[in-house]
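Annex B. Sample input.
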Amino acid sequence: MSQIKSQVCGWVEQGHITQEQANTLYRQVTELPDASSWRGLIANLLLWFGALSFASGVIFFFAYNWQSLGRFAKFGLIEVAIVLAIGAFAWLYYRANSLSAASHFHSHSNQSNDSRFGGTTANGVLLAASVLVGGLLALVGQTYQTGADPWQLFALWALVILPFAWVAGFDGLWLLLVGLINLSIGIFLDSFSHLWGAFLDEQGQLLIFICLNLAIYYAFVFLDRNVVGRWHAPILEYACSLFAMGCFTWLITWLIFDDLFKSDGASTWIICGYFAHLIFGFVIFRYRLPRIYPLALGGFSLIAVGAALLIRLMFEDNDPIGGFLFIGLYIILASTGLSIWLKALSRKLKPQSESMPESEPESMPESMSELEPEPVARATQGKVGDIHEQQ
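Annex B, continued. Sample output.
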């Protein structure tokens, strides 16, 4: 289907057909979402909000009735809630597997949309159980006053829900797990900053987060070879790459304003690592695994670093008025050029990276390159037309 859309978009830009004719052609060869699709989307949204609301309600119930409940009542209630959630997950999981074969042809499109992010009812219940596990760990720490640091709570929470995320292969659980890992590391570095203050400053801590999130991102990128599966977590990939590149851009900008002209070997290695990562990402996501999002992140990060370097070079001894004009012009031209290149690259990569779905009707053409613009334009001029008869 992406080949059809790209071909029609090219015809519109070349002037072979008008936008109205392109809309008519889209309506003939594409399937618009119907009422059942919208009901499925709303049901999924209500499912996630309901699961998170249930887990939050249990935790707030303990916080409000802390003095009224006994020790065994607290542990009993939250453990029963966790066991019920895990039991509901197992029942819903096997029930969905048993019904998937019978309803495959009837709801193939809905299932493919839901499974892209692991969005199933069973995984929603497991997400609630994972949040309740954190409440149980906090309850243990508050009840017995174990003296553990907060970073240990989040690290143990991430360790406990790791099997949940691996079994479910759910994007939301992977995102929760990685968020807990980053949070525990951040609190750990802040709690023991007095031990390595001379060896690991704020720039070193930023470098730790950069390396961690980039490692997680590339691990999921190279493990995710299919559109569905345990390692298919696009939201996690977006979040990790955005956080890592944001920290990397911040760190390079920091070095530009502080240590650019100092003879510091560590700063030089960090800047070289930044450009090496940009080159590596360009080669991977341009030629091996074509993706627009990481290319856009790297491009705009490079524009921000270039703007910071220009500010450092121009505002140090020169008039700031002309500098502001030049830097603003640089940002506008560089961002516009990058956006145009990304748009053209996206149009070029879509037919290569996406194949036609197996559920397409047999009467659909295998390649839209066999269609000529003129017959298609004539086919779309009438009120009623069949594109397949005009090939």
